[in-house]
């Protein structure tokens, strides 16, 4: 009804006076319909090029621009199936904001903003205006988000200011602030014109030698020996060494043109832009207004208001039906737009008196997790993807293109891109039905409240361990990682409850003490004082083998630790890149002389295989087998785990026969072939049992029935997280990344510099050892924080030393033994100019620390080494297994097998 009334009102062509603004009609020729043809395009395709870029939009233009700046212009060709800038200029918001969900994305956005400014300073048109942006809040939780952003702004170098409702209205006079609690003013934000930006980048690239071929389509991407070798087009073939998929909306379909197909999981949904006609006296520097609680944004464009938003439930479309940019413009759907229209009229009531120019329904493609898709494709080397920019391509293009070109030219980028890397996906993420469900949910993440541990509700129940139904009926509440359903905690279940129990998804809809606190506390203490049972099935499991000694040589080259250990040993090691950063952090069990089983983080399933495959001997002497789905992994944790397992196996489990950090193949119950690892990844005593799937339920039932007398308890991921954070254990993807080295996180003793085979990154680490580190991994315990009442630390908070900013937290949790909030993070020694200086243990220990949580600083005690936690059941094995090494000899307790 409201939509109908609005349509009637805004089509009245009389003049209105409202809040001092005069509404008038626009001339027939609108500036957004103006376009120009790109000059100096190629008439004929070259037969060879070094790089072929598919897509002449702002992303492809930015990649070409950066390549040309590196001297590769004459070796680069852009293939555009229509004409450069052909897409409708009505279907873009042009919003450019620096705040993003992570530091890497912030740096990328800042790089893009700087490129816009640089081009403008050179007299090139980009539409850039630094008008600032105002984010408003209707709820207390949203204001908490803004206070957290304000705190993080110190780390990220983004000037901003918290403002009250009165100030919000001063910044945006047309704003209705009746229900507004406050806002965040970001003066450095702005807007740009993606079309002008694209054309300016393209013109500069052409000047520097890049060839652009319009009205030409890619029909196939060829590879040879696993590497890009050329492309087929509608106007002939081109031999090339690199291919960059910048096809945006069509990136998924372009991925399917390669052999093997490259999976680019994107699917479009309808996206709306409401344009008014010109409004009198509207300041050209009117800031961008974002009202995420209403899912909407507004900006000034050419004297008009452009408004849009990200509705909570989007409307997906199958892209096969869309063959050109014109077909991306769909008929308006006022009923679907209604939820945004209501909020727009509520926030800016004078819009009801404005004259509508048009409501544009333009399709935008989204990824399954609503993040950009960047990096080298797992399927083909030298095939790069830069897509999934959603509606903010202009704020991502410059930085993403820079990172892509870094990888092409240098082999690596200065940004830590793992969270955006295309290798974060599996084949299931590219399933069309999965995407169609997930894309309904993805756009809403833009303006949803970013509560901790976000979980999607679509695309669930995909990868399930054989014990999943039993765990569900025992009260498991699930989170999803790489498609796997993983228990996060276990609710109490009445014995007479109906079975099967309904599937439940975890949620944490607070920034303070979560509702699952007491449940996780109970599970935590089971692991420390009895027995906890956890499902580790999602962990990545790779068998690495060879006929001869080739597998040992390969792993010695890939791993910074010494993997040539006795059969039956487990080695914990990093796989470093050329800069010494972590490409993988894993455990290797030596099954036999030429056979290792690698256990890696769940999110590494694609990534670690790609890294190893890139370095495999060309003669095929070493084979990799992904056995993740072949084994169910059950972890039993706690002081009585040896007693329990001894009752189920004939193998001697005494420390002399089965020491800590070793492997044995056991019979458990009636099952055989169980790969048992004497470790837990949390620092607690226990075992991880890798069970062939057909035996999983049998082994589980035996563990539960036999473990009753020991008080066995089901435990979820959150309890395990708390255990490892208290024990100061770093995890890849949370604390460790491609920019972090072992020397920075207390793991120098796991780096064997004197191996016969120099490992990747050795020279960088030797140099760092000589020069000293400029940041160090620490554990911080909040000493004046009240966990019942105060907001919690959830990661990303600034750390202050003696009142000065010095770093950020990474992973956090409540420490149930410490009875304090525990934060892990990195501390730097920054001089007055913000330049990192050498960090020493004395420097770390001599400071007074605080952590800023949403604007309030809490005092913190710092630890450099794994603390010795008090326990009812002390054990020399457990005490010696620490995340960071002090001056002691572990062989004093465990003999030659101990190889952490």
Write the layout of secondary structure elements.
Elements: H1 2-10, E1 17-18, E2 21-22, E3 51-54, H2 58-69, E4 76-79, E5 95-96, H3 103-121, E6 133-137, H4 140-156, E7 161-163, H5 165-171, E8 182-186, E9 190-191, H6 194-207, E10 211-213, E11 218-224, E12 227-233, E13 236-239, E14 242-245, H7 251-255, E15 267-276, E16 288-291, E17 296-301, E18 304-309, E19 329-330, H8 334-347, E20 356-366, E21 373-376, E22 383-387, H9 393-409, H10 432-441, H11 468-473, E23 476-481, E24 484-490, H12 517-529, E25 531-535, E26 540-546, H13 550-558, E27 570-576, E28 582-592, E29 595-600, H14 605-613, E30 622-626, E31 631-637, H15 641-646, E32 663-668, E33 671-677, E34 686-692, H16 696-707, E35 712-714, H17 717-726, H18 762-771, E36 775-782, E37 798-801, E38 804-815, E39 820-830, E40 836-837, H19 841-845, E41 849-853, E42 856-863, H20 876-880, H21 891-894
Parallel strand pairs: 3-4, 3-14, 4-10, 6-16, 14-22, 25-35
Antiparallel strand pairs: 1-2, 5-9, 6-8, 7-8, 11-12, 12-13, 15-18, 15-20, 16-17, 17-18, 19-20, 21-22, 23-24, 25-31, 26-29, 26-30, 27-28, 28-29, 31-34, 32-33, 33-34, 36-39, 36-42, 37-38, 37-41, 38-39, 39-40, 41-42
């Amino acid at each position: 009804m409201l939509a109908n009334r609005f349509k009637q009102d805004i089509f009245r062509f009389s003049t209105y006076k409202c809040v001092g603004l005069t509404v008038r009609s626009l001339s027939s020729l609108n500036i957004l319909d103006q376009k120009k043809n790109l000059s100096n395009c190629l008439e004929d395709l070259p037969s060879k090029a070094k790089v072929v870029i598919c897509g002449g939009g702002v992303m492809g233009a930015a990649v070409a621009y950066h390549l040309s700046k590196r001297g590769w212009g004459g070796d680069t060709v852009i293939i555009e199936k229509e004409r450069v800038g052909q897409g409708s200029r009505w279907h873009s918001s042009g919003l450019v904001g620096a705040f993003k969900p992570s530091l890497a994305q912030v740096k990328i956005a800042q790089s893009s903003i700087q490129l816009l400014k640089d081009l403008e300073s050179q007299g090139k048109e980009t539409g850039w205006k630094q008008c600032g942006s105002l984010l408003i809040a209707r709820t207390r939780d949203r204001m908490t988000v803004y206070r957290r952003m304000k705190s993080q702004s110190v780390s990220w170098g983004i000037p901003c200011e918290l403002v009250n409702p009165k100030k919000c209205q001063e910044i945006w006079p047309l704003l209705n602030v009746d229900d507004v609690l406050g806002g965040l003013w970001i003066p450095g934000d702005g807007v740009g014109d993606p079309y002008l930006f694209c054309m300016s980048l393209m013109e500069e690239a052409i000047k520097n030698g890049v060839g652009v071929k319009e009205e030409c389509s890619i029909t196939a991407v060829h590879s040879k020996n696993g590497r890009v070798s050329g492309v087929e087009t509608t106007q002939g073939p081109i031999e090339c060494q690199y291919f960059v998929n910048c096809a945006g909306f069509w990136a998924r379909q372009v991925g399917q043109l390669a052999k093997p197909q490259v999976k680019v999981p994107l699917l479009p949904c309808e996206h709306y832009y409401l344009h008014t006609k010109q409004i009198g006296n509207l300041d050209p520097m009117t800031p961008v207004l974002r009202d995420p609680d209403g899912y909407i944004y507004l900006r000034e464009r050419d004297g008009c208001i452009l408004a849009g938003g990200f509705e909570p439930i989007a409307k997906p479309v199958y892209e096969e039906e869309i063959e050109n940019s014109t077909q991306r413009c769909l008929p308006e759907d006022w009923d679907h737009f209604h939820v945004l229209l209501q909020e727009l009229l509520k926030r800016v009531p004078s819009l009801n008196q404005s004259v509508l120019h048009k409501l544009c329904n333009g399709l935008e493609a989204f990824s399954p997790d609503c993040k950009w898709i960047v990096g080298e494709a797992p399927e083909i080397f030298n095939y790069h993807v830069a897509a999934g920019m959603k509606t903010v391509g202009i704020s991502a293009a410059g930085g993403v293109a820079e990172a892509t070109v870094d990888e092409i030219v240098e082999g690596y980028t200065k940004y830590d891109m793992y969270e955006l890397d295309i290798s974060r996906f599996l084949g299931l993420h590219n399933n069309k039905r999965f995407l169609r469900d997930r894309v309904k949910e993805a756009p809403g993440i833009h303006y949803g409240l970013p509560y901790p541990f976000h979980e999607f509700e679509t695309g669930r129940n995909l990868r399930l361990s054989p014990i999943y139904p039993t765990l569900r009926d025992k009260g498991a509440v699930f989170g999803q990682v790489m498609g796997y359903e993983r228990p996060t905690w276990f609710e109490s279940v009445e014995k007479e409850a109906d079975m099967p129990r309904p599937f439940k998804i975890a949620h944490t809809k607070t920034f303070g003490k979560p509702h699952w606190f007491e449940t996780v506390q109970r599970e935590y203490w089971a692991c420390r004082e009895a027995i906890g049972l956890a499902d580790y099935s999602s962990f990545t499991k790779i068998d690495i083998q060879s006929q001869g000694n080739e597998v040992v040589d390969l792993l010695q080259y890939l791993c910074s630790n010494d993997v040539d250990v006795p059969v039956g040993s487990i080695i914990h090691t990093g796989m470093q890149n050329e800069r010494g950063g972590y490409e993988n952090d894993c455990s290797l069990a030596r099954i036999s002389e030429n056979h290792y089983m690698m256990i890696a983080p769940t999110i590494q399933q694609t990534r670690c295989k790609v890294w190893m495959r890139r370095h495999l001997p060309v003669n095929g002497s070493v084979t990799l087998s992904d056995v993740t789905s072949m084994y169910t992994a059950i972890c039993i944790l706690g002081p009585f785990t040896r007693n329990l397992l001894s009752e189920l196996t004939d193998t001697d489990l005494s420390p002399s026969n089965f020491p800590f950090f070793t492997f044995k193949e056991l019979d458990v119950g009636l099952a055989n072939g169980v790969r048992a690892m004497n470790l837990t990844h949390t620092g607690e005593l226990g075992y991880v049992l890798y069970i062939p799937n057909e035996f999983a339920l049998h082994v589980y039932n035996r563990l539960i029935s036999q473990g009753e007398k020991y008080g066995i308890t089901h435990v979820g991921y959150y309890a395990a997280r708390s255990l490892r954070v208290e024990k100061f254990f770093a995890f890849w993807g949370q604390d460790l990344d491609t920019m972090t080295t072992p020397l920075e996180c207390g793991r120098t003793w796991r780096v064997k510099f004197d191996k016969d085979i120099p490992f990747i990154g050795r020279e960088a680490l030797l140099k760092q050892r000589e020069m000293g580190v400029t940041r160090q991994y620490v554990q911080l315990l909040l000493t004046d924080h009240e966990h019942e009442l105060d907001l919690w630390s959830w990661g990303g908070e600034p750390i202050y030393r003696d009142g000065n900013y010095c770093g950020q937290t990474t992973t956090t949790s409540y420490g149930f033994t410490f009875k304090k909030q525990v934060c892990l993070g990195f501390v730097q020694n920054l001089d007055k100019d913000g330049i990192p200086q050498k960090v020493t243990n004395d420097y770390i220990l001599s400071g007074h620390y605080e952590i800023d949580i949403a604007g309030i600083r809490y005092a913190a005690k710092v630890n450099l080494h794994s603390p010795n936690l008090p326990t009812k059941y002390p054990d020399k094995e457990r005490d010696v297994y620490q995340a960071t090494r002090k001056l002691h000899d572990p062989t004093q307790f465990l003999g030659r097998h101990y190889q952490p």
